Amino acid sequence: MDKDEASTLRARAIEILEQTLQASYVEVKSASELEAGIAAEAESLTGFLHDSDSRTFCILAASFLEDVFRRSLINYWAISSKSQKDYFGPNGPLSTFSQRILVAVGLGWISQEQALNATRLRKIRNEFAHNHLIHSLADQRLSKLAESLHPYERVWVKIPEYAAAFGVLTLENTLRMRFYCNTFHIAGGALARAKLLQSGIPANFRSGRGFDNLTEIEQRFGNYMIRFCFTTAGVPFRG
Questions:
Q1: What rounded mean pLDDT belongs to the chain?
Q2: What is the Cα–Cα distance from 232 to 166, expressed in whole angstroms?
């Protein structure tokens, strides 16, 4: 076989692999029963968070992400109800938020950057839960940690109406938006990648670029992020 023939065969093999992945992706793109249930809880939680004080807000949002990891591990590792105490009980290997973050990275469900942000979310939650003197994200003892989270809330500043409203928000409100968006971006991505990998599809494979080519759970959580930020800024959300 000469070089041209080998190159042609290689190209054909890549094309077949791409077609196979595309077909498999279409099959698993829709929300699973697990994802649909978590998405419904997320939507209900979001409504509650809008009117919550920052302490309650951060504790509940971060605990939601921790629980997403737990339920994903139970589902994709097929952990039986009898075994859950062994894994998630007080002395279990998956009993803490930090342990679940570590395992999620090892499994390829979240990136190193997302793990770092998840750890920041965990630290903020713990500070609120155990320090009665801190009541806001803008507190100097928390603000630097919160500001170091990824600024997803700034994605939409190119929209004039949003930019104008965003520009006059308090630091507390912008940090709440940032905390929320990091929580939901990590949760949606982890759910999507866990399912893709379980189905034999590379974690970062998508059928194309853009919102329409994300998995359904990523789209839902993305919409929650947009809605939360626009609502916080007082801008009508059309979606």
A1: 92
A2: 9
DSSP H or E stretch at residue 193: helix 171-198
Q: What is the pLDDT of residues 17-60, one digit of tens each?
A: 577 778 888 889 999 999 999 999 999 999 999 999 999 999 99
Rounded CA gap, 185 and 189, in Å? 6
For residue 57 the two structure tokens come to: 């807000």
> Residue 96 has what DSSP assignment?
S
Closest alpha carbon to 64 in 182, 177, 153: 182
Helices (runs of H) and strands (runs of E) counted in the chain: 10, 0
* Cα-based distances in Å from 20 to 115, 208, 218: 31, 14, 22
Asked if 218 and 192 count as a contact pair (C-beta separation under 8 A), the reply is yes
What distance in Å separates the CA atoms of residue 50 and residue 83, rounded to the nearest whole number? 36
The answer to whether 114 and 101 have CB atoms below 8 angstroms apart is no
Q: Name the one residue in this structure whose structure tokens are 């009898």.
A: 82
Tally of residues, the chain:
239
Distance CA 141, CA 136 (A): 9
Q: Of 238, 228, 239, 230, which is closest to residue 43 (Cα–Cα)?
A: 228
> What tens digit of pLDDT does each residue of 201-234 get?
999 888 788 999 999 999 999 999 999 999 999 9
Q: Which pair of structure tokens corresponds to residue 37?
A: 């249930």
201/195 Cα distance (integer angstroms): 9
The Cβ of residue 27 has, within 10 Å, a number of other Cβ atoms equal to 9
